[in-house]
Amino acid sequence: MFSSSAVFADYFSYGFKTGKLSYRVTHNSSFGSLSQIKTSVQKWNGVSSNVKLTYTSSASADITVDYMNVAPPASSSFGLTTLYSYGNKLANPVAYWNGALCVIYKNSTLINNSTAAKATCTHEVGHALSLSHTSGSKDIMKQGIKNYTSLSSNDVSWFRKKWGN
Questions:
Q1: What is the strand order of the sheet 52-55 is part of?
Q2: For the chain, is the Cβ count within 10 Å smaller at the N or the C terminus?
Q3: What pTM did the predictor assign?
Q4: Percent of the chain residues past pLDDT 90, beyond the cut
Q5: What is the C-alpha separation between 116 and 75, in angstroms, rounded?
Q6: Which tens digit of pLDDT belongs to each residue from 101-139?
C-alpha cells in the first residue's frame, strides 16, 4: 500500500534520481531472518542494470525496511510505504524523493504466512522504487495478500519502463 491514494500509472514519473541505492532493515527477528528480508528486497536487483540495492546498517540508508516491528492501523493492513524529500513526508509522488520507509506490519496474517510476508516486503520496496499498484493476477505490485513471491512479467515490464533495461 502506498501512503497516498493518487496513482498516475503503473510507475511514477518521479522517484529517486538514481537507482544506486542503499537500504537497511530494522526487524523483529521473531518474524523473519535478516537474510530472508534481504532476499525479498533484492528481488529488484538485476531487473534493470540501472538499479542496484545494497544493504547497509547505516541509519543514513536511502530506504529503510521496518519488518514487523509495529502493529497495523487496521487488521486489513499489511504494509505501507512513505516517501520523503529532505526529511519532509510527501503527500503525493509528484516530486523527487531521497528517502523511503517501507513498513511491513506485524499482522497475524503475515506472521502465519511467511510467503505473504516476503511478498509484502518486495511489494513495498517496489513502491519505494516508483512502482504503483497493478491489476495482474500474479503481479507482486497487485494490492493485497499474495501466495507467491516472484516478479511477474508485468512487474518487470513496468520496472524497466521506469528504470531502463
A1: 52-55, 20-27, 63-67, 99-104, 79-85, 88-89
A2: C
A3: 0.93
A4: 87
A5: 15
A6: 999 999 999 999 999 999 999 999 999 999 999 999 999
How far apart, in Å, are the Cα atoms of 117 and each of 15, 28, 34, 155?
A: 24, 13, 13, 18
Helix (H, G, I), strand (E, B) or coil at 55: strand
> Residue 53 corresponds to which cell in the numbers above?
540495492
d(CA 146, CA 132): 16
Question: Which pLDDT band, with edges at 50, 70 and 90, does 12 fall under?
Answer: confident
Residue 67 backbone dihedrals phi, psi, to 5 degrees: -105, 105
DSSP 125: H
Cross-strand pairs, 52:
20
